Amino acid sequence: MPIQIIGMIQPHEVSETLARRGPAVDPAYVRAFAQAHEHAGFDRILVPASSTSPDTLLTVAYAAAATQRIRFLLAHRPGFVAPTLAARQLATLDHYTGGRLAVHYISGGSDADQQRDGDFLGHDERYARTDEYLTLLRRVWTEDKPFDHEGTYYRVKGAASEVKPLQQPYVPIYFGGASEPALRVAGRHADVYALWGESLAQAGDLVRRVRAEAAAHGRGIGFSISFRPIVAPTEDEAWAKAARILEATRAQQVQIAHARGAGPQQSEGARRLLADAARGDRVDERLWTAIARETGGRSNSTALVGTPEQVADALLKYYDLGIETFLVRGFDPLVDAVEYGRELLPLVRAKVAERDAQRALERKAA
């Protein structure tokens, strides 16, 4: 099956190992960052969201204007904009980007972060609201006649839109969340379900559960997984690089705790990352969990460590689980994006093509 490799850009330079440089919105950095991913051969780039970050829709619009081919994955939080308005905004952006848009819907894994924007719903209610939100969104995108809706969280009368997505039938829906309410929403709505970088055993279990949820609605579903590859010419050099990254991350922890609030992330995804970390810093030979443990399971913080060949082989094991999209980003984000494009991305694509060709021969022989 075809694979997709996604990167990530932010509106300013920052990571677990780098203190923020420049203003909150740095247009020159965004332009260079997006163009670096396009040059490196990424298929798509994620623009993440938080309650304090610059607007993602406008960041995608700017980055799209600075690039030609690369596609975008816009992180969007349901609940802060009416779904009818969001449907028009996203459909309009799909046209302005030439059909290069997909949207990753995030219900929210932190009460504190949600409350900064005035959202005081509990965890399960947020997913129930997302379910209704996505139902309305898809209706606006796909229905030709005005419609009424009266639900738990939204009530509209005569909803309609002159603008429909350039991509048909709608802008692709990515979705994350590992709790039971999240899996039910994914089964009903997601085109692609996104995992953080878990161990092979945990990832395989989640793939099976989400696939079953989607099948209950007569749907197929794709899968994405996120890692922070740490690559070097030799394995020893890669692990030494990982040790330096851990040291730099620890030096940043006082600032990170002040900015985000102390303690581990609340989400089920964070709990799953920390469960892997509890097994040790190295899991499945290449999966490095030290940063996840150090930061309380915040975001996609697990790494695959080794030479480009070794990391590509590790990713291939996840491909064998049915995961066909890899989100990879580095701890030195711009520099690492360029480095991935030189060896890692071509190796992953070549190994997947070889694996697919082998399977095709086996099917033909059978």
Automatic annotation (TrEMBL):
InterPro entries: Luciferase-like_dom, Luciferase-like_sf, SsuD_RutA_monooxygenase. Keywords: Flavoprotein, FMN, Monooxygenase, Oxidoreductase. Residues 22-324 form the Luciferase-like domain. GO terms for biological process: alkanesulfonate catabolic process. One of its GO terms (molecular function) is alkanesulfonate monooxygenase activity. The keyword Oxidoreductase applies. Pfam families: Bac_luciferase (PF00296). This is LLM class flavin-dependent oxidoreductase.
